[in-house]
Amino acid sequence: MHHRSIDTPQAAVLRQIEEISDEMISFLRELVHIPTVNPPGENYAAGAELIGSKLRQFGYETHFIAAEGSSEHSERYPRINVFGRMPGSRPRPCLHFNGHFDVVPVGAGWTRDPFGAEIADGKLYGRGASDQKAGIAASIFAVEAIRRAGVRLQGSVEQSGTVDEESGGFAGVAYLARHGWIGQDKTDFVIITEPTNVDRVCLGHRGVYWFKVVTHGRIAHGSMPHFGISAIDHLAEFLHQVNSRLRPSLATRKTSMPVEPPGSRYASINVNALFGGQPEEGPQTPCVADRSGAIFDRRFLAEEDFEQVRGEVRALLETLREKNPEFRYDLEDLMIVHPVQTDPACELVAAISAGAEEVLGYRPALTASPGTYDQKHVVRIGNVHQCIAYGPGILDQAHLPDEYVRIEDVVTSARIMALTALRLLGTE
């Protein structure tokens, strides 16, 4: 920065970030204190209210958007999103920052209060600190630093805090995109503030196919199993096919997308759940299981055609049925997400790369995500193609016990977000 005269808007904004960094971290602590745990979707109203009141305080026109009519939304666990708009001297270009404020369940193994937001050794601990409440704090305060520095933007800024990303984002970003809050007719750029270790920009993600296979048998007495047909045995045969035939084939398919970690550049399949027969608790009776099943998580590549991905599973099941006329099954699609990738040469990627280089001294790596996040809805429903993920927080910390974010990273990412906004939106 030293080569510039000190009165540039950039320099004024960066100075302002230093001045408000304590305020940013105390807001982040308040956000981590609220246990917005999903499932089932607790305290969403409180999370939305905290973010919304901060946006109102900072001059945004603010809306609370309940996902009315979505299957996830209920009286007990309302799905409430918050949306703020700060118009510039003209409506476009419009830069939209989005972050999800739901967090995964705490899980075992914590040595600190998961919602205590304790600070130690420059780290702020808590469930959701990295994934991704730090990103929400960073984007709100990045734009606030511009406002407090007295710099007037030409384009407009929006901020949204949304729910349910951890369970697919259907009552969150998908709902906003479907109802016209985010869309190509009004939104030019979207930065989703997921954790990318501060020095990476995430361009997209692989595809997901979640499916359920249920096998059907015939009940009989366990002492006379020859009178029955075991659905569990049939499921075991399918699992054997998946492990011995499908999995080795997937391990040879590699994407050209820069997925991190590199092990996730290959197509993969995982068994999420297994069920069948009698519940494990309680007394057992001697019975041949007449129903069994499993839920699978298949990650597919941009280079794979979805119809073939599903067809491959169906073909394995059909092979078993041809061999054994008593093999009966159902295959049910649970979730289908197609891969997305933003053009690395687009204006948004160029602007954030330049901002990062100015702050860090080097250009950020361009990566893709092994799992999906809400970019799928921005691109597929909202039709906004300049969409990336960028934020503080350590990707490898997401969902772990003793999750933390480095405070210095939150401040650094706010600097980069602010410079990116200045570059994309222009100043008066």
Task: Outline the structure in words.
InterPro entries: ArgE/DapE (IPR010182), Bact_exopeptidase_dim_dom (IPR036264), Peptidase_M20 (IPR002933), Peptidase_M20_dimer (IPR011650), Peptidase_M20A (IPR050072). This is Acetylornithine deacetylase/succinyl-diaminopimelate desuccinylase family protein. It comes from Paracidobacterium acidisoli. The chain has 428 residues and is α/β, with parallel strands linked by helices. It folds into two domains: 9-205 and 340-425, Aminopeptidase; 210-337, Alpha-Beta Plaits (2-Layer Sandwich). It contains nine helices and 16 strands. It has a six-stranded mixed beta sheet. Strands 10-11-9-12 form a four-stranded antiparallel beta sheet, covered by helices on one side. Strand 4 (119-120) and strand 5 (123-125) form a beta hairpin. Helix 5 (231-250) crosses helix 6 and helix 7 crosses helix 9. The two termini are 21 Å apart. The model has no long low-confidence stretch (mean pLDDT 96).
Please tally the helical runs, counting DSSP H or I stretches of 4 or more residues.
Answer: 9
Helicity, in percent?
25-40%
Q: How does the helix and strand content classify structurally?
A: alpha/beta
Q: Profile the largest sheet.
A: 6 strands, mixed
Overall geometry comes to: elongated
Q: Which CATH-level-2 architecture of the largest domain?
A: 3-Layer(aba) Sandwich
CATH superfamily (homologous) name of the largest domain = Zn peptidases
Strand order across the largest sheet: 1-2-6-3-7-15
Distance between the termini: 21 Å
Question: What amount of the residues lies in strands?
Answer: 15-25%
Number of strands: 16
Determine and state the CATH class of the largest domain: Alpha Beta
Number of spatially distinct domains? 2
Give the CATH topology of the largest domain: Aminopeptidase
Mean pLDDT: 96
User: Which residue ranges are poorly predicted, with pLDDT under 50 across at least 5 consecutive positions?
Assistant: none
Order of helices and strands: HHEEEEEHEHEEEHEEHEEHEHEEH
Keywords: Cobalt, Hydrolase, Metal-binding, Zinc
Domain Peptidase M20 dimerisation: 204-321
Cofactor: Co(2+); Zn(2+)
InterPro entries: ArgE/DapE, Bact_exopeptidase_dim_dom, Peptidase_M20, Peptidase_M20_dimer, Peptidase_M20A
